[in-house]
Design goal:
Length: about 325
Amino acid sequence: MEVMAKKALITGILGQDGPYLAKHLLNKGYKVFGLIRRYSNPTFDNLDFLGITREVEYVQGDMSDEASLYSVVKMLQPAEVYNLAAQSFVGASWDQAKLTTEVNAIGVLYLLNAIKFFSPATKFYQASTSEMFGLGNTNGRQDENTNFHPRSPYGVSKVYAYWMTVNFRESYNIFTANGILFNHESPIRGIQFVTRKITDGVARIKLGLAKDLRLGNLKSRRDWGFAGDYVEAMHLMLQQDKGDDFVVGTGENHSVEEFVSLAFEHIGIKDWQKYIVTDPRFIRPAEVPDLKANPQKAKKILGWEPKTSFKDLVADMVEADLKRLKK
Ligand code: GDR
C-alpha cells in the first residue's frame, strides 16, 4: 500500500526561510504547499536559488483575508502549518504599523481559527522573534522566560501573535509552537536587511559598481545565525510530544560594525571605515541595542545546535553576492 506523504503548508514561501524550510521538508519526504497571495509578478528567485521552485505546490491565499485561509486549510488538512508570512522588515513597521499588525498579528488569529474550525489535528508553527524581547534580558541574554519589551510596531505585532499561539494551545488543546528565532541570514536574505545590504554593498565596491555603503546604527548587536540551520529547529518543534516555545540562536553576538569589517576583510580591504557613510534615514525611532540568545532549551529538548559559524556566514554571503553581480 502506498503511504501518503505528510502534507505541510508554508506561508511566506517566497521569502528567505520558506525556501530553506521547503527544501528541508522535501528532503524528508513531505508534500509541500506554499501559500501565495495575489501579485502581478510573484518572484520565485529564492526558490530558484535552492532549485525547488517546481517541487512546491502553490495555493492562493492572503493573511489579511480570513476566508482564503479557511478554504486552504479546509481543502488541504495539512499535518503541519508553518506560519512564516509577515511584514518582516522592522524598519518599515513604523510607517506601515497597521498593515504590519493586520498581517503579523490578526493574520495569525485567522490562521489559528482556520485550524480550530477545519483541521484541529494540524500542528502549527509560529515564526516568533527575538524582536519581542527588545530591551528585555536575563543577565544580558534572552531565554524563554525573559520579559518582552518590544521596541517597534513589528515587535508589538509579534508579541500578540506569540500569545495567541500559546492561547490556542491552552484553550483548545491545539498543537502549537513558537520558535523565537534570533536574526538568521543567508545569501537569499532580503536586500534591505542589514547583513545582505552589507554583503551586496561590499561586493559592489569590490567590483567597482559602488563607491560607498550607507548605513544606520553600527553599534547595535545581533545574534546572527544561518537560516538553513534554523529551519531544522522549526521542524523539530513540531515533532515533539507536545507544543512548546523555544529560543533559537547561536548564543554569541556581534555588532553591525563587526559584520561590516569582516565582510570587507573577506575581499581584502582593511581600511573599511572610509567606505561607510552614516545615513540618518536608516536610524530607527527606537532601537533594540543588544540581542543574544540563550538557546539551551532547544539544545536540551530538540537536540538542536547551529552548525554555521559567523565567519563562514559572512564569507558565504559575500561570495554569493560577488557571483550574482558578476553575471
Ligand atoms: P532586525 O534586522 O531589525 O534585527 O530584524 P535588520 O537586519 O533590519 O537590522 C539589524 C540591526 O542593524 C541596524 N542597522 C541597519 N539595519 C538595516 N536594515 N539597514 C541599515 O542600513 C542599517 N544600519 C544599521 C538596525 O538598526 C538593527 O539594529 C530581523 C528581521 O528579519 C525580523 O523580521 C526578525 O524578526 C529579526 O531579525 C529576528
